[in-house]
Amino acid sequence: GAVVSQHPSWVICKSGTSVKIECRSLDFQATTMFWYRQFPKQSLMLMATSNEGSKATYEQGVEKDKFLINHASLTLSTLTVTSAHPEDSSFYICSASDRGRGESQPQHFGDGTRLSIL
Amino acid sequence: GQNIDQPTEMTATEGAIVQINCTYQTSGFNGLFWYQQHAGEAPTFLSYNVLDGLEEKGRFSSFLSRSKGYSYLLLKELQMKDSASYLCACMDSNYQLIWGAGTKLIIKP
After folding, report:
1. Which residues of A touch B42 (CB under 8 A)?
2. Facing residue for B45 by CB, picked from A91, A108, A114
3. pLDDT tens digit string along B47-72?
4. A61: Cβ contacts below 8 Å, ≥ 6 apart
5. What is the C-alpha separation between A66 and B2, in angstroms, rounded?
6. Is residue A57 packed enough to be buried (19+ CB in 10 Å), middle (13-18) or exposed (0-12)?
7. Among A29, B3, B14, B22, which residue's Cβ finds the most Cβ atoms within 10 Å?
């Protein structure tokens, strides 16, 4: 149980393009999902917490107009990187926990999306 | 402030045992998690401790001492495929996960 699916797994696109990444919880409902970014050989950095039916909570230093998050249903959150530039190239990973089983449930991660902006 | 400390890198030999330590200071405590992350992949959940003591799961065990703010992940009978980063994360009083920077474990034949 607690499977999280993320796609696409790899995106290569031109500078200025907007890119949408989807994160789905396949076998549980996730009122909260999390979006992380990880640069090579660096640690996970939480970008934002996605809340179903309300606005996302962004971490300090993360531009909410740049990284649009929509959590329209209990099983789907999307992250859109708007007008992406080469410095946005990174590994983006989503996670979710089955909080229907309790608040202390582990976060389960999608497989991540490798974004390369040319 | 909230802080998680773990060694940056460790090296061990195939077949041996290695212990990866993690110390933490958080605002409240609702459990400690260990994750494994292979290079280029997303983290996968290994263990969860909320009570003091040792939790064993096959070759991997995780220990917690709440009074000392300390945990370790013990890996036995090391295999080459165990080469990965191991992430320690604590859940604070708001059920937010605070992540350590990870320990890169290198296994040598």
Report:
1. 6, 93, 109-112
2. A108
3. 999 999 999 999 999 999 999 999 99
4. none
5. 28
6. middle
7. B22
Size of interface A-B (CB pairs under 8 A): 40
- Cβ contact, residue pair A112, B99, below 8 Å: no
**Structure tokens given for B18:** 């290695």
Given CB atoms, is A108 within the 8 Å cutoff of chain B?
Answer: yes
Q: For an interface test with B, which of A43, A49, A94, A111 has the most B Cβ atoms less than 10 Å from its Cβ? A: A43
Cβ–Cβ gap B42/A110 under 8 Å = yes
Please report the DSSP string for B27-72 in residue order.
SS---EEEEEE-TTS--EEEEEE-SSEEEEETTEEEEEETTTTEEE
No. of H helices and E strands in chain A?
Answer: 0, 11
Residue A21 phi, psi (nearest 5): -120, 135
Rg (CA), chain A: 14
Give just the sign of the alpha carbon dihedral B78, A42, A13, A18.
Answer: positive
Interval A36-81: pLDDT, tens:
999 988 889 999 999 888 889 999 999 999 999 999 888 999 999 9
HSE (side-chain half, CA atoms, 13 Å) at A37: 17
